[in-house]
Amino acid sequence: MRNFRNDLSIFLSILSKHDIGEFSSLYDLLGKLDSLDSFGYSLINIEFYLNGTIAGTIPDSLNKFKISLINTINLKDEINSDKDNISSDYLFELNIDSYGIGDGDGNKPFKSCLHHDKHIDSSEPKYTHPTYHFHFGGDYLEGLNTGDTFILSSPRIPHPPMDIFLGFHFIVSNYFSAKDYAFVNELKSSIEYQTIIKRAQERLWTPYFKAFDSTNTHQDFILSKIFPLYLS
């Protein structure tokens, strides 16, 4: 808690030198940290402002953006060094409003949303659910017409390379509901299928993920290239 508070204090000092958004809720959190019994917070209305176009955005006339961050993170009651101690209410969501020339209504924003959360193993999922995963959309887009939304090319979410086998596995796992298509579970339970996918993983994914190993000697699959957000 003490380390987090110190880091947040320094971080806010850095942010104060740049006019990039509204971060008053972070100052509020800083003032509350000393009174908390256990680590955790739920933040809303952290806003970032961007002026100018973003490549790959549809419609391409959009040139003003407000990105609102919602972030909830709490620790479980019992801390275990061998397990994930982040509780199930984890949430990281980007709600994005955008305006632009020729949008037909200068007061009406186009909306987009990117949602990152934690999958809870309460039941068998219909689609592939990584423990922590990004997906497009969220509560922010519920009930909107397609004309109220926009497509943004960011962020570029890291993912290892795929060949025809891994590509097939990706599509089946993410777009075919295991509850609606009987072949999904049947296919994935096939020893032959598993063997083919594992061999493809060994060829393409094992070298990729070894980038996270400090003993890695690969020249291309290195941490700074496959996950440039990580500062070593």
3D structure, described in words:
The chain is α+β, with helices and mostly antiparallel strands. Helices cover 28% and strands 22% of the residues. The protein contains six helices and six strands, in the order αβαβββββαααα. It has helices at 2-15, 24-32, 164-175, 182-188, 191-209, 223-226; strands spanning 21-22, 40-51, 62-74, 91-100, 110-118, 132-136. A six-stranded antiparallel beta sheet has the order 1-2-3-4-5-6. The mean pLDDT is 89.
Shape: globular
Structural class: alpha+beta
> Please, what is the average pLDDT?
89
Low-confidence stretches: none
Task: Report the sheet with the most strands, covering strand number, pairing sense and barrel closure.
Answer: 6 strands, antiparallel
Helix fraction bin? 25-40%
Beta strand count: 6
Q: In what order do the strands lie side by side in the largest sheet? A: 1-2-3-4-5-6
Compute the separation of the termini in Å: 23 Å
Amount of beta strand? 15-25%
Helical stretch tally? 6
> What is the string of helix and strand elements?
HEHEEEEEHHHH
Radius of gyration: 21 Å
The protein's oligomeric status is: single chain
Keywords:
232 residues, alpha+beta, six-stranded antiparallel beta sheet
